[in-house]
Amino acid sequence: ELDLSKLPPPAGRTVDFIKDVQPIFAKTCYGCHGAEKQKSNYRLDARPYAFKGGDIGKPIFPGDSAHSALVHYIAGIHPEITMPPKGDALSAEQVGVIRAWIDQGAK
To answer: Which of 6, 9, 59, 65 could in theory staple to 99 by disulfide, Cβ–Cβ 3.0 to 4.6 A?
Structure first.
């Protein structure tokens, strides 16, 4: 059972995908989940693929960041999967921006 209380809170502002979210994804996610490479058969660089999911299942539930697996992975609360697997973890602020984007409908 995941401890959702350990999730950083969503950002308390309106989040814009292009300005706020895409730069985080481009810096930390697209190397393994982009056009060139798709680990676990998952692509995060194009909306239809990002929402469909990969080998692990559906990662994004628009309107519900607390139950979106993507958030569990980037926040490091999943016992077996942490994203990114190498390099710096996302900051609480970055996770909060992604949570706000999902909570606001993941447009």
So the answer is: 65
Residues 24 and 1: their CA atoms lie apart, in Å, by 27
pLDDT band, very low/low/confident/very high, at 30 (cuts 50, 70, 90): very high
Q: What is the pTM of this model?
A: 0.95
Listed residue (79, 63, 66, 81) closest to 7, CA to CA: 66
Amino acid, single-letter form, for residue 36: E
Q: Which residue in 26, 41, 28, 14 sits closest to 101, CA to CA?
A: 14
Cα distance between residue 2 and residue 28, in whole Å? 23
- Is the predicted pLDDT of residue 16 greater than 90, yes or no? yes
List C-alpha distances in Å: 14 to 17, 21, 23, 52: 10, 11, 16, 24
Which residues, 6 or more positions from 36, have their beta carbon under 8 angstroms from its beta carbon? none
Find where tokens 């680990």 sit.
Answer: 39
Contact status, residue 11 vs residue 99, Cβ threshold 8 Å? yes
